[in-house]
Design goal:
With 157 residues, the chain is α+β, with helices and mostly antiparallel strands. Helix content is 41%, strand content 13%.
Length: 157
């Protein structure tokens, strides 16, 4: 892995031309760029779909230096809270993660119990959701959206 603090890396990015999707996504999110976040994002992107943290950990151990699974969980939590990656639950109720796949700002994912997330590319629906959020003081522009279908939380107001 390259040294993230080297001046050459900061100037050009991993591929030498400044075109690293992980760095671009982290910069847009406002998250601090760390080696763990970059590695986790890149590993998710290479997997191409939703994966469990334990799968990332096994891959990490096979291909990289030793780490603790808590580092992976922490990076996944930070990235998903910032909207950089997608988070869902698998059929067993365990968290699974993926990088967004195209679709630009109109990308929305529909989450149904016990099914993989369904990507929806619907610009009009996206605009409607953003307008509803804006009406209550929430700005969603450029953030990933997910709609969960299921029973409402009985504890919610």
């Amino acid at each position: 892995m390259q040294n993230l603090s080297s001046p050459a890396f900061r100037k050009t990015g991993i591929d030498g031309a400044g075109n690293d999707p992980a760095l671009d996504a982290l910069r847009r999110s406002g998250l601090r760029i760390t080696a763990a976040r970059v590695d986790v994002f890149n590993a998710l992107q290479r997997q191409g779909g939703f994966v469990r943290p334990e799968t990332l950990f096994r891959i990490w151990l096979e291909t990289r230096r030793q780490t603790n699974i808590s580092t992976i969980y922490r990076a996944l939590t930070d990235l998903s809270k910032a909207g950089v990656i997608l988070k869902a639950r698998d059929a067993e109720g365990r968290n699974i993660y993926a990088t967004p796949t195209g679709g630009g700002d109109d990308s929305i994912h529909l989450y149904l119990p016990e099914l993989p997330p369904i990507p929806l590319h619907h610009p009009a629906l996206r605009r409607e959701i953003e307008e509803a959020a804006r009406a209550v003081g929430i700005e969603l522009h450029g953030r990933q959206l997910g709609i969960t279908v299921g029973s409402p939380d009985p504890k919610a107001p």
